[in-house]
Amino acid sequence: MVGSLKLRVIMMAGGSVIGLAGAGALTWAGVVALAPYMGLAMSGALVGGLLLLGAAIAMWKATRPAVPMEEEFAGVTAAAANTVAYLRDDTLDTLTGMSINAVSNMVEKRPLLTLLGVGVAAYAVARAPNTSVGIMDRMLSRLV
Which end of the chain lies in a sparser environment, N or C, as judged by fewer CB atoms within 10 Å? Predict the structure, then answer.
């Protein structure tokens, strides 16, 4: 089971590298195709601007909460809402208060796990903040 997970993680990392190389090749092909019409610098700026616009839209869409905050806490008492707010603040304080040595230690010991953990944590916090705070806190305590 663990071997299969490692294989999948390695395949995902390899696919990401190959995908980035393909995206770079397509970007360069777009710049070269537009260069005769508007010059190399202008076509590079146009393609780069379009890619940045696409990235900004994708990041904006990915970080939108699935449920608005008012609906998420609609049936929750004030005490429970305060507890969730306290957990969020405590997790934020923990993340911002980590020393550089602790972060470098996490990256040195388990680089892929740290990268995957940060990515999953960021996505989970953006999608369901009230349920992901406890999970992220436990994960960080195990990594450090």
Answer: N
Whether pTM exceeds 0.85: no
- The beta-carbon contacts of 87-93 under 8 Å, at least 24 apart in sequence, are 87/133, 87/134, 87/137, 88/129, 88/133, 90/137, 91/133, 91/136, 91/137
Q: What are phi and psi of 94, to 5 degrees?
A: -65, -45
Token pair belonging to 11: 């395949």
Residue type, 26: L
* 51-98 residue pLDDT tens: 999 888 988 887 776 666 666 666 666 666 667 676 666 666 666 666
Contacts of 9 (CB under 8 A, 6+ apart): 112, 116
Query: In the block, which residue shows the tokens 């989970």?
Result: 124
Give me 96's structure tokens: 């911002």
